[in-house]
Design a protein that fits this description.
The protein has about 280 residues and is mainly beta. About 15% of the residues lie in helices and about 40% in strands. The protein is built from four helices and twelve strands, in the order αββαβββββαβαββββ. The protein has a twelve-stranded antiparallel beta sheet with strand order 1-2-4-5-6-3-9-12-11-10-8-7, covered by helices on one side. β4 and β5 form a beta hairpin. It is globular and about 50 Å long.
Length: about 280
């Protein structure tokens, strides 16, 4: 879930992904200047993936990650990222990644990397939706690393209960470098933006925003095919369950031509406070 102010430019985000290496397997991550509140979870995940990816052979590509948010991150304090080289095999490598601030863990993640191989190939069908016309998008929406456009935006903004699904088009607001690790990390960053909010759609109009305490608990992601970010991507999201103060959401990310690039799953805390 995004919290605080949005990053203003794609270049700023790319700068945050350029981690400082302190020593072997240890990195320092910076945060956007002047931000308040807590760190955006997508940023923490993206920086953790960059750290893990910098410790594997260049021919390996991330194919899955599983992370847990342990404490809120403080945007005023740089994070230290430690990478454990759990396994280096001929085809796969596994990394355990721990992000800390002030000596306390705020996020941990396991990530698996694989050499490029051929094999069986099938996928889910992309929903039959067209990307938005950029001329119709308000210029203010481009003042961020990614511009996003929700299909049936007006319906989703109404104060009446909605089905727990949404379709979100997004693309970077500038050119993305061709390196797979950078592209995958940027996709991780944006994948956290609207995911758990889908679990709140059936309750629109029943509770005020300030009544709801929402926070990401975990996030998993699988990368199915080569990532090309310099295009519109469709994020098809649904929430099959909410219970016991937790919401569950899952998503598929398609290229503009219909290729299934990645899939996500997230559970988040959703508490309703008494007014």
């Amino acid at each position: 879930m995004r919290s605080g102010e949005k990053l203003q430019e794609l270049q700023e985000l790319l700068g945050l992904l350029a981690l400082e290496q302190i020593e072997e397997n240890i990195f320092r991550a910076q945060h956007p200047e002047g931000r308040q509140g807590r760190l955006y979870g997508g940023q923490i995940m993206a920086q953790a993936l960059m750290a893990g990816g910098r410790t594997v052979a260049p021919e390996l590509r991330v194919h899955s990650l599983h992370g847990y948010f342990l404490r809120p991150g403080d945007p005023r304090v740089p994070a230290v990222i430690r990478v454990e080289r759990a396994r280096d095999g001929r085809s796969f490598a596994t990394r355990r990644i721990l992000v800390t601030q002030r000596g306390e863990a705020i996020f941990n993640m396991d990530a698996s990397f694989q050499i490029v191989e051929s094999g069986l190939d099938h996928q889910a069908t992309m929903p039959d939706l067209k990307p938005p016309s950029e001329e119709k998008i308000p210029p203010a929406l481009f003042d961020a690393p990614f511009v996003t456009w929700r299909h049936e935006f007006r319906r989703l903004q109404s104060e009446t209960p909605q089905p727990p699904e949404q379709f979100v088009w997004f693309k970077p607001t500038g050119r993305v470098p061709p390196e797979h690790l950078v592209a995958a990390s940027l996709l991780v960053f944006e994948s956290d933006n609207v995911l758990i909010g889908t679990a709140r759609l059936p309750y629109r109009g029943r509770f005020k925003r300030e009544q709801m305490q929402v926070a990401s608990l975990d996030h998993a992601m699988w990368f199915h095919r080569p990532i090309e970010l310099n295009q519109w991507l469709l994020y098809a999201i649904d929430s099959p369950s909410a219970s016991q103060a937790r919401g569950f959401a899952r998503g598929n990310i398609f290229s503009q031509s219909g290729e299934l690039l990645a899939s996500t799953v997230q559970e988040g805390l959703i508490r309703v406070r008494d007014t």
